Queue: 4 jobs
Job 1
Amino acid sequence: MEKIKEAFLTSGSYPAWQPKVVLFDMDGVLYNSMPNHASSWHNSMKEYGINISEEGAYMYEGMRGVEVIKKLVKEQKGVEIDDATAAEMYRKKSEYYAACKKADLIPGVKNLQEAIVRAGLRVGVVTGSGQKTLLDRILHDFRGLVSEDIFVTANNVTKGKPNPEPYLVGMRMAGTSPWQTIVVENAPLGVRAAKAAGCFTIAVNTGPLPDSVLLNERADLVVHNMDEVTALLPSILKQY
């Protein structure tokens, strides 16, 4: 772990390793919601003649829904649509998602957050979602763990992941620099956004994509469940 942290500090020419906050993505990190999102993307876009496979949906995870739709329409139909049209299509996707069974918490994520808080760090959330019901659920399910003043949603940014803006906003809310910030992600675009913001990024591969996809986005560490992160936490947090 010391070599991983040393490589991180060297890559950014950072002065020290001083973790103070951990920023969590939501889908696939806090909740096992990506299967629901994947089927909702596939079924809703099919109504508009847009093809996106369920596995393919994971490649767009973390990106704002309107941006995903505009990208798909341009690639597959060769036309650019405005935000209002994309938002209407996204409402259809949201209807499909709302009809899905409620997603469970990712196993071990609360234990990990409890360990982080015991270690004296703060916990924040950086999600591409703007749906109030989902955001309210986070504050209920992770009460006493997630800091409400470190909560970035689609409503706080003008550019979603893979743009670094969401994580830059998260650091601004937390009052931290990149070498004081750890990100927990599961999506390629989320990892790309976090690394572009300069953060130490742990990729927890909870989906069907191979580890290589996350490593290619320069994740500092790739693991396969939250228990692995909890076990590594003392060595991760040890100041270097």
Note: The longest strand covers residues 146-152.
Job 2
Amino acid sequence: MKLIYLTDIHDGLHGLKRILQTTDADLYFFSGDIIYKAFFSFDRIIDFCGVQEELYYFLNEKKDDSTPYDFTTHAIRFPEKYSTAIVEKSQKYRDLYKLAAKTMKEKYEIIEKLVQKYAKSPVYCLPGNYDLDLQYTELYQRDLHRKSCEFENLKISGYGGAPIWTSGIPEKLTVVFHEYTKNGKNYSEPEDFFREELPDICWIHNPAYGYFDKIPGLGNCGSQGIRRYLDDENPSLVVSGHVHEDQGIKKTRNTVFVNPSNFGAVDSVYGFQEGGYFAEIYFDGKTVVQSNLCQLKGDEWTSLIEVDCSEKNLKLIKQNPSSHISFEDYIRGT
């Protein structure tokens, strides 16, 4: 069985179409962040981000843990309790919020049409922190957040989102990553979910702590709960994304971990990240036997590195001379 895995697609719809047109696989995973911007207009993006961030700053100063959506609902309903400036800002926020949700849903509709037209095999999707909850979009039948499915005797379970607020995204419609620490105890819904499901493929947007979750200058940011689960259990495969800078493949005990890095191009604090990356993953029964890192550039894609995963230690099969990634950099902690 062959799986093609793309993560952090970031509105890269042309590339998505080319992957569906030019690759063959038994199964495709499109992992969050599928969307990157909530508007087609750059000016609207600036307007919405600006008013959203101003409201978060205002609420933080007031030590009010409401979301901007909930606060503006109250301010519009009871305008006599607030200044004219706050009421006007609240109305502007709600108007832009409504338009952002509408525009994002239109983007998911475009993706669904691409999949229906070009996909020759099943496609599943998982939301990230830039996405709406996919159950409210045209991708709802492909959504695997907090769900499981069976494919060729493999059980696949997904948990999307990330524990981070994303500016410019309608926060009330996003997936909440239910993990927090209170009174010294860590509660993790994804940990509980995976312990109940016990999948062969553990599909996550936000990585487990210590597995492809290292942000330059900040350190590890992954889920403590999912890490606890993986310390106890050995799924065949764990695929993640979210952290573009921590790319590679790793094998621990009998579990193969893969983060191919971002598929869609991104401007970040670490510079421009051209993306185009995706992974080909091969199974023999329930065992991952090979993983290839590939990259789409323009309309053509190439395999950068091919890795044998069938033994205890990962082995290099083939490396493209033009690849900027060495085998030693690509494999971690085997």
Note: The radius of gyration is 21 Å.
Job 3
Amino acid sequence: MESRNPVLTSRWHGTAFRVRYQETDQMGVVYHANYLSWFETGRTEMFRGLGFAYRTLESMGVLLPVTSADLQFKSPARYDDLIAVYARLTTFSALRVVYEYEIRRLAEPEAGKSSDAAALAELPVPTGLERLPGELLVTGSTSHVWLNMDWKPVRLDRVLPELFYAITMALRKEGGAE
């Protein structure tokens, strides 16, 4: 159990969707606060890709709230854009977790060649450090700490060693451990 080595960078995990009208502001661009919601979608799906659901973590008695968030805006997303949210872990330890994100606008499928559903299902997800597809719109990160149900900080390796070990092994299995 590598509790002394907190840096286990995962591969990128991606999820895609179309920007909904209610996510835009009067200027016709995605309202800035929606990117935080998209970060949550990215990290939830990324964690699910490792084989763990946040709901399961909570049922086991641990919470993982956001302690800080950082966003850098490069270019706006607009209504009906095809968007991909890429997320990966950059730090996983017994005390905290840090995610990194990239939100990108994907190219539209060619007319008559592919439907939106097919384009979303075929979302390219790089397995290494190669360049992610699409136009970069937003980058960012969020930091989280492990808490118990009383909102007290805990060491995951002590309160749920089997979960800590399982996540560590999942990260290694996907080839992202450093």
Note: The longest strand covers residues 82-92.
Job 4
Amino acid sequence: MEAEAVELMHPRPVDRIGDDATHVVTELYRGHALGLMRLALMMVGDRPTAEDVVQEAFFGLYRRWPHLRDRASALTYVRSSVLNGCRSALRRRRLPFRAEHLPPVWSAEAAAMVGEDRRQVMAALHRLPVRQREALVLRYFGELAEEEIAEAMKVSRGTVKSTTSRGVAALAKILEEEQ
């Protein structure tokens, strides 16, 4: 009787896709959602949009699970989906980029210095073309290897190398002009 009462209060959803998808997507979410949230936050600049993008990416993975050819590449699929979601969010956006997330700091002076430096870098980063910004964020923030970046961006390794190089040069030029 007690189990029936619990089942009525918290009914299990009908699982059309299967326990395999539920388990794998849940584990991927536990292990990678925070990092993907940070990636999205770096790309779009605000937490609510970043959260929406990541949630949609994981939901898309769950929904498409039966149709995935290479299930071992599920993380790459989600990462690509996050990047695509960020691109879409930026296209829909009417307001300019605003970096809301600031890292923890140790003193008021350090907060001012780190905060201003970070704002300058984030503003400069968002002046870059989307592809260069993605390559730089994935490489230096996400600490991904060239091959992983290429898979996430759906480009070749050579394109990743040249895009990253051009992005670093452009970012340095923008920051130099602002000083």
Note: Confidence is low (pLDDT under 50) at residues 3-17, 99-107.
